[in-house]
Amino acid sequence: MGTIQESELIINERGAIYHLDLLPEELASTIITVGDPDRVSKVSSQFDRIEVKRQHREFVTHTGYAGNKRLSVVSTGIGPDNIDIVLNELDALVNIDFKTRTIKHDHTVLNIVRIGTSGSLQASIPVDSWVASTHGLGIDNLLNFYRIEENEEERQVLQSFITQTQLSHRISQPYISSAAPSLLKHFVTNFQHGITVTCPGFYGPQGRVLRLGLSHPDLIDRLTNFSFGQHRITNFEMETAAIYGLGKLLGHHCLSLSSIVANRIDRTFSGNAAANMDKLITTTIDILKGL
Ligand code: R1P
Ligand code: URA
């Protein structure tokens, strides 16, 4: 393996990775990602001690301890394009030697848990429910820039999704990736499990009409009605499939947890979103402390 050039792996004057502005020692091996930069302090306010606070653009990181567990919380901002930056830089922080600019011989596995908000695609999953995503199914295109390796089960679900939904090729070539079983098994009580669809936008790409017409006005019906064996689509948002896809390719363990703020079937929106998010954060930290 050769050295990785300065234009490919960008390290700033502090010796920190470019977008996240983090040094390798400033990152814990268990990481919570959140979309909203203001959610970072909501997570770290539940730490017993904070040792690092950094911010560059929308990427805010706090690293500290919850009990004996060292945790980092990092904001990604909105969308799969930001996940490309965050996942590649988190991986580089542990698996690339910044001095020699070479890939380290020993691979470090990160546990990466997204805590985000999401829209429900099932009447039976009301606002203020929590979803743990068994799979991320991406219609956002990010993973099509990488060499994707799907397993047999993922291939079958994806093929069935393509056949049943008949989404135009002009939208996307969908991809799929699963949660890390080692994390998912700890998030069962109080969580609904299902496939999360990751969209490249909040309005048209999630079937919302304000002033513009949509290419697929029945997008929500097509997603809600999909089923393959026990699998169904529970919700959609804007990061999960990108995290699962890149995380798996890079050799990390990933899980996405969502607090449902909107139900797109009964058209309700939570009146309790902030308090429900705080509860999800507390529950998640309690579980991660035990791992
Ligand atoms: C859209 O409002 C944002 O909310 C969801 C979506 O994935 C998207 O990022 O997650 P967060 O609440 O974590 O940002
Ligand atoms: N986040 C999304 O991406 N969609 C929703 O409907 C709610 C939160």
UniProtKB/TrEMBL annotation:
Short name of any one Pfam family annotated for the protein: PNP_UDP_1
One GO BP: purine nucleoside catabolic process
Catalytic reactions on record: uridine + phosphate = alpha-D-ribose 1-phosphate + uracil
Gene Ontology molecular function, alphabetical: purine-nucleoside phosphorylase activity; uridine phosphorylase activity
Signal sequence extent: none
Transmembrane segments: none
EC number assigned by the record: 2.4.2.3
Location of the Nucleoside phosphorylase domain: 31-277
Any one Gene Ontology cellular component term annotated for this protein: cytosol
CDD domains assigned to the protein according to its UniProt record, in alphabetical order: UP_TbUP-like (cd00436)
Major enzyme class: transferase
InterPro entries reported in the protein's UniProt record: Nucleoside_phosphorylase_d (IPR000845), Nucleoside_phosphorylase_sf (IPR035994)
Record protein name field: Uridine phosphorylase
